[in-house]
Prior knowledge:
The protein is α/β, with parallel strands linked by helices. The chain is built from nine helices and nine strands. It has helices spanning 3-14, 47-50, 53-58, 60-74, 81-92, 106-114, 182-194, 212-219, 246-254; strands at 18-22, 96-100, 127-128, 131-138, 144-146, 169-173, 197-201, 223-228, 240-243. The structure holds ligand BV8 and zinc ion.
Amino acid sequence: MSGGIERARQVLGDAEHIVVLTGAGVSAESGVPTFRGAGGLWRSRRPEELASPEAFARDPRLVWEWYSWRRGFLSECAPNGAHLALAKLALTRDGTTLVTQNVDGLHHRAAEAVALEEEDPAAAYPLEVHGAMHRDRCSGCGRRTAGLSGIDASTEETLPRCEGCGAMLRPDVVWFGEALDPAVIGASFTAARHADVCLVVGTSAVVYPAASVPAITHRSGGAVIEINLEPTPLTSTAAVSLRGTAGALVPAVLAGI
Ligand code: BV8
Ligand code: ZN
């Protein structure tokens, strides 16, 4: 076993409180395109161009076409070994908090998949700081509903509307330029402050305020462990930075912790 993995296992094994921050890289091996990797492009458009209230106001049909395509994609994807190992950690290790930037719902599905009869899967549900793409939210009254599939984005008239107030529905995610739910990001920061270790998996660590989570642990005297294909702005302050795929490294680092 590499020195890095051994060191990471030791730091995590000694920890009382662990906060985990995941990004798109943890879902890459489930077939979900990452944001900034090659697969992140969609019809040569950048996600940042489409994931914004301005884009939705300008062309709701295009934004719904993008999310409808992503939802369709997701229905073919399943949690991978990294999601399952993280769910097991959260279910078996008190003091563990999962925080995800992802909106794909795969951590939830992993919790449901690994929870034993006597375990409550909710212990492994992540704090979803950017919301969840499989839910809809009314742009008028804020009502949340299960995400519609097979959306007809051919005209504005066929776009989904709220049964309560008639305003247009939108995916229940946080777009660029929108505030995160204070309760969710607040709980993430509290967990980061109390954590002895922040395990960061598959994020380029460029999107704020989510990317502050490891910095808060580090500033509070905790250690940062990073698992990523490439170096990131976190690498220089990480106690251990492991290069490789989440699907291989997360189960190796967490086995028996
Ligand atoms: C806000 C939901 C204020 C939508 C998303 C300048 C400087 C600093 C900040 C800003 C700035 N200008 C603007 C800002 C703020 C902005 C921001 O941070 N912009 C960045 C781009 C500079 N932030 C915001 O706008 C946030 N809101 O600040 O509000 C405010 C306050 C009050 C009132 C009003 C407003 C909101 C940000 C949320 C945006 N929504 N998603 C959707 O998904 O449709 S963010 C989006 O990026 C996804 O959630 C994604 O998860 C997230 C971060 O990306 P990553 O997860 O890191 O993914 P990425 O592809 O980048 O990296 C993947 C990594 O994995 C790579 O390193 C890769 O090498 C690695 N990898 C790949 N495969 C694997 C792997 N690793 C391991 N194994 C593998 N197999
Ligand atoms: Zn409504």
